[in-house]
Amino acid sequence: MHYDLIVMGMGLSGLMAARTAAEAGKKVLIIGKGMGCLTLFSNTIDVLGKIPEEARLKDGLSQWIQDHPDHPYSKVGLIGIDESLSSFTSLFQSPYSFQTIGDRNSFIPTGAGIMRPTYLIPDTMVAGVSGNKKALIVGFKGFRDFYAGYVANPLKWRGVTLSIPDVPNQEISATALSRWIEKRSFRERIGEEVKKRLNGETSVGFPALLGVNDPMGVKMDLEEKIGVEVFEIPTLPPSIPGMRIFNRFKEWLIRRGVNILSGYSISKVSLKGRRCEGIHVHHPPVSTLYSADHFILATGRFMGGGLKADRRRIFEPVFNLPVSQPGSQEKWFEKSFFDEHPVHRVGILTDSSLRPIGEAGKVIFENVRAAGTILAGHYCLDEKSREGIEIATGYWAAKNTFQI
Amino acid sequence: MATVNSKRMDKKTWPKSNADVCIRCATCMAVCPVSRVTPLFPGPKQAGPGAERFRKSGDSSVDEWIDLCIGCHLCDMACSSGVNISELNLMAKAKYLDEKGRPLRDWFLTHSFLFAGLASFFSAITNFLLKNQAVKWIADSLLRIERRRELPAYQSPTFRQWFRKRPSSPPFEKGGDACLPLGGQGFEPYSKDRKKVAYFYGCYTNTNEVDVGKATVQVLEANGLEVILPPQECCGLPMLGNGNFKGARKMGLKNVPSLLKAVRSGLDILFSSTSCGHMIRHDYSHLLAIPGTEEVAHHLFDLFEFLRNLRERGNLNIHFKELPLKIAYFPPCHLRSLGIGLPALEILRLIPGLEIENIEADCCGMGGTFGFKKEKYEISQEIGKDLKEAIDRLNPEIVLTDCEGCRMQIRHLTGLKVLHPIQILRDALSDTK
Amino acid sequence: MKGSMRLQTEVLIIGGGATGVGIARDLSLRGIPSLLIEREDFLSGASGRNHGLFHSGGRYVVSDPEAARECIAENRILRKIVPHCIEETDGLFVSLPEDSLDFRDRFIQACEEADIPAYLLSRDHVLSLEPELNPDLLSAVNVPDGAIDPFELVLANAKDAENRGAKFLLHSEVTSILVEGDRVKNILAKNTLHGEEYLIEASYLINAAGAWADRLLKLAGLRMAMALSKGSMLITNQRLANRVINRCRPPSDGDIIVPNHTVSILGTTSVRLEDLEHFEVTPQEVSLLIEETSKMLPAIEETRLIRAYAGIRPLFQSEGKGDDRAISRGFVLIDHEKRDGIRNLITITGGKLVTYRLMAEKTSDLLCRKMGTDLPCSTHLKPIPAMDAPSNLKDRLKASGEAEILCDCELVRTDEVEKILKEGGVKDLQDILHRTRLAKGTCQGGFCIYRLLGILNEMGLAEGDSNKILRGFLEERWKGIRPVLWGSSIKEEELIESIYKGIFNL
């Protein structure tokens, strides 16, 4: 099968690249070894949390780009970042949309009772912003990835833990619980229970699993029953809000005729000179060749398999692209867990259109681009920039590929 | 490593466990249809690589819940570390059932091919019995086959009988199966202008949904291809899904030589059931180590994958008439696990007037024989409810899906007309044929 | 002293390792009251940082037959009194092509002389037992080695001793020892968590502080010549072999693989050390261990490591006169009356986990002689009751289906943890980790520590800032995993960092 574009990687950057190309009418294949990391962490869209609290994002980004010429954001530029975020938000129409409050970072509570800066937040989390209001936090017995008391205590709020009547003594998974909450009868019971426990609180925080399909419907129904505003708080993985993002992309891409292959890794690539001609996908015992005019490598970092490490070195397994080495293994990580580890800055170096470059800045393949966290020069965990980098570079890679 | 061993299975044929690479990230927990509806199944992370660390060779099985894995492969497809979770589950299930013994019910559910011929021949009687409440009550209480489940009706003549007797059937096929030409031994690359194709129709098409087979033959013939039916038996997936590796392997050992013969005579083999196809293409070689499968697998195609390939080369008959229908398409788990995308959706979108939407749901909950089992029926229904809601949101006239299990389940859940996509494609071609 | 709590006891034992706790139990069976004081928690020294080998004696049989004889005798006793702490796996001494078969023959001969049941297995037979072994091996000798769970062993001993009247003072450090004339008069101690001070009056003092024995004696103005040897070990994510695998050659670096519940432990190295409090596993040690142990089990080269850790063995330098109570090279029992003229002080240190009971017996015998009684030892006769939680893999897997699981990797049940918390006595996170298998699996606590802190908050037991505790745990965890971060472990690490630095903004 021949495509205009093959995107490797099914995280947010890959999905954005596929969306951008499909929107321009291109024939696209997106292939992932797994589902990417959206369903683990991406509850909200971080763009750049590490700017002064009161700063407008635009100003913060502009300063950041000036100060960090090698950062992925600097390749995309302010306008590109802005366009990419608009493209992302336009995919999420009401009732489940993403918003920003005054073009600034908002602070939302986390599962450890710490406030956390983030940029675009889904409507289900808005009522939790800033945490000035007194909130009652609700947890569920048997759900092990969220504890009301743990969230509430550091924030000087109150937490209550409800029992789920039909699940005695057993644990309940995030997906099961979010399915329960989608049931009206269940909401009736917990709504009543929570209302009874309110003691002057003006909002109620639930773990972020108010349903997969209609979270706003669930939220509004709960608000009606409880009588105060309701918001979601991110939990340990898996992330139900991340699943919503993934599902929405998938739905849109399938409707646009994008071919999605999940669960397969690339066994080798066919190269000709400075071009990639195709990728081989091995599904024992069959190996299939997919060819394309262009390729975008959005395979993530270590977790996604975009970068690999053995005892001696760090490498990129698909094209064997050059990866700068932070010395021998003992130099990859600092002595304190909370330090900034040199390993986080390594990645693929590219030109301004995200084509990987080798020594002396020479473009390695004319028709291959890299996008997402695999790029070098960022520390997204600390910068609170993971989703922003993914969205901006995924978009930018596809845009540059087709000169859209 | 904690590789599983089973007395009844040659150890060499077990794939090696790669549970060691699991990073406990819980992506699989986001997609598992079973753990979403019941706390009885701990989910793929625990049941698969998690439990694997606790399974010591020589210890007897204690993880009863392993039998609740529906075998949908969704976890495998979600895992970015490449853990073969559903295989780990299947091996553990096999070991568990080998030790505990299998209920008679499972034998019936996995050996229906033995009496399918008779059942078809006496279809009137069979179907009366299958619908009879007393019979269903007996099946329910003695065999623990859920009585609320409709048992599939048998049709007569069978697809194979229809194929042989139909007037347009090419003369050389009439003599039976043995007259397939013996081809060369060479490995042929993908057939470009091959005029003949072989068809693996599967048991269910043969005796229960004959029209799927008819539609397949009609569409292929409308594309100028001659269809040949190589001798074939049940692919063995029902047995494999029930952890009976030995039985499944036996079926594979019967099918592969016949399919190999067809391949070596220069034919591509097509399947219309994605479950049978997945079994032959991947499980035969990987899980069952049946010799010769690799060669077969390279020439084995999903029906719509094959049609999509024809289209790629401009050889597909696209003189479709307008079909003003509102259709919802459900991609079966086994189709997704084939890793070929959604070719039926691609082809059907070419039909003018057809309004077709993909159904955003994970698994139908049927899981082959899973949904027939009394103790699993509720789980099967709960999983199905999510699919039903997704279908309701689309409000279609007809639902299409490539797998007979999914079709049964969707009919059962929605009461809608549920067809194989090839049946709609045939209808779109019917004027031009 | 004013402001300090006065405590009185007949015998004060210093050190909560296997030896100290073993002495507490031995004395409790003889009816002698004791108080044990420990700076941290039980097992905070070498007892909690070893490879958990249940020695048959084979490892020393050629170089030190006397120690080997002690081992096999204790091996037989412990099988009877603490069967729940022992996995009777057997052990193999594997000869590789580069190993001398002369040594193997001497080994078999020495086993026979030391009464260690040993028999030779052919290559094919060995490979059928342990398919992951190097197929080039020549032969292997089977001995009654096994795996012992030091945590369960020490905690079960402590519990039984406590039931018989022994007392324990944990998280309390001895700050000074007051000697008056020929006696230790009393001891000052301080609680390390809340600072409370204790004045302890004891008729007898037993120093069972292991590697800290010398430091303790200094408080009494005494000295003993000790050298410290660091032994490093690596933990694999899965159990690679069901038997203990030894190299059939004179003991050396990287020659042993011990199964331990779900994992295997690769050991060990031996590096001289000066600082008792700050030490780490070096990259050279990691490489050496992988290279050496993978000669026996080639899969190790590719296998995933989840942690590196080190323990300290105290080594004794001969002191000439006075140091005459060395019962064997295995352990040292010092009567300070003979050595230093202090009548009520005994030091016991060294030895191996498997001989902890014997060491306790000999120490208690000496104490009894000093006390002028002849109460007999009965620890070799009286079994120690098992702890509640199931310990073997099969039972744990089965039990996991019946209740909420807190730690997915090690299948630790929530109710198991809640019970420990309700019983009281646990003072900090480490205490809980010592009493369960929490955080000992694949993710090394990445998920379950958050859950544990969540439960502490829910139960109203969270003291202080949970996130400070969480940070402390993550730093401790980091020490163990940092040396083995590549392959799947580096992926795991990115996941855990993304959770704590990302989702939780810790």
Q: Please, could you describe this protein's structure?
A:
- Chain A is α/β, with parallel strands linked by helices.
- Chain A is about 30% helix and about 20% strand.
- In chain A, the strands form five sheets. In chain A, strands 1, 2, 11, 12, 13, 14 and 17 form a seven-stranded mixed β-sheet that branches.
- Chain A starts with a strand and ends with a helix.
- In chain B, the strands form two sheets. In chain B, strands 2-1-3-4 form a four-stranded parallel β-sheet.
- In chain B, helix 7 crosses helix 8 (about 125-130) and helix 21 crosses helix 22.
- The longest helix of chain B is centred in the C-terminal third of the chain and has 21 residues, at about 375-395.
- Chain B is globular and about 60 Å long.
- The N and C termini of chain B lie far apart (about 60 Å).
- With about 500 residues, chain C is an alpha+beta fold.
- Chain C contains 15 helices and 22 strands.
- In chain C, the strands form four sheets. In chain C, strands 5, 6, 7, 13, 14, 15, 16, 17 and 18 form a nine-stranded mixed β-sheet that branches.
- The model of chain C is unreliable at about 320-330 (pLDDT under 50).
- Classes of the chains: A alpha/beta (about 400), B alpha/beta (about 425), C alpha+beta (about 500).
Strand count of chain A: 17
How confident overall, as mean pLDDT of chain A?
95
Structural class of chain A comes to alpha/beta
Number of helices of chain C: 15
Mean of all residue-level pLDDT scores of chain C: 92
**CA radius of gyration of chain C:** 23 Å
Give the CATH architecture of the largest domain in chain A: 3-Layer(bba) Sandwich
Q: Whole-Å distance between the termini of chain C?
A: 43 Å
CATH superfamily of the largest domain in chain C: FAD/NAD(P)-binding domain
Throw out a few tags for this protein.
heterotrimer, B: alpha/beta, Glutathione S-transferase Yfyf (Class Pi), Chain A, domain 2, four-stranded parallel β-sheet, globular, C: FAD/NAD(P)-binding domain, D-Amino Acid Oxidase, Chain A, domain 2, nine-stranded mixed β-sheet, eight-stranded mixed β-sheet, 15 helices
